[in-house]
Amino acid sequence: MHMVLQAVAKTDEVLKAKVAKREEEAQKKLEEEGTSLEEQVRRIKEIEAIESDSFVPQAFKSSRDDIKTEPVEVKQDPESADSQDITLPVSIVYSDSDALAHPNLFMDKEKAEELWLTRLVSLRQERLMGSPVT
C-alpha cells in the first residue's frame, strides 16, 4: 500500500511539472509574440477550459456557403438623381454548379489531344535537358 501511495505521489509530481512547463512555454511564446496581458490571460483560460473534463468538442461549421449581401450606397451627381438606387453585393459569390466533373473533361477531343502533345513534348525536353520532371 505504501508503494502505491509513493507511485501516485511521484506521478502527481510529474504531471504538475509537465503542466508548469507547458505554462512557462506558453508564456514565453506569448512574450515573444508581444501579446498583451489580457490576451495572455484569455488564452490561458481557454487552454484550461479545453484541458478540463467538462470540455465537449463541437463540429466545425464553415461560413463559406452563407452568402451575405449588404446594400451599398452610391453617391450620384444631382443631374442623375432621378435614376434608381443601385445596390451592389459586398461578398464574393462562388459560381459552383455542383457538377461532378471538371468542365475540361468535356473539351473537344482534338483540342485535348493537342494540349496533351504539347505537354508531352515539353516534359520530354525537360527530361533531355536534365531538369527534374514535375
Features:
134 residues, mainly alpha, 3 helices
Description:
The chain has 134 residues and is an all-alpha fold. The protein contains three helices and no strands. The chain has helices at 2-33, 37-51, 109-129. The longest helix is centred in the N-terminal third of the chain and has 32 residues, at 2-33. It is extended. The mean pLDDT is 78.
Order of helices and strands: HHH
Radius of gyration: 31 Å
- What profile does the largest beta sheet have? none
Q: What share of the residues does DSSP label as strand, in percent? A: under 5%
* Count of helical stretches: 3
Share of helical residues: 40-55%
Shape: extended
State the separation between the terminal residues, measured CA to CA.
Answer: 65 Å
Strand elements, count: 0
What is the assembly state of the chains in this entry?
Answer: single chain
Q: Which class of secondary structure composition applies to the elements? A: mainly alpha
Mean pLDDT: 78
List unreliable stretches of 5+ residues: none
What's the short version?
By secondary structure, the protein is mainly α. It has helices at residues 2-33, 37-51, 109-129.
Fold topology:
Elements: H1 2-33, H2 37-51, H3 109-129
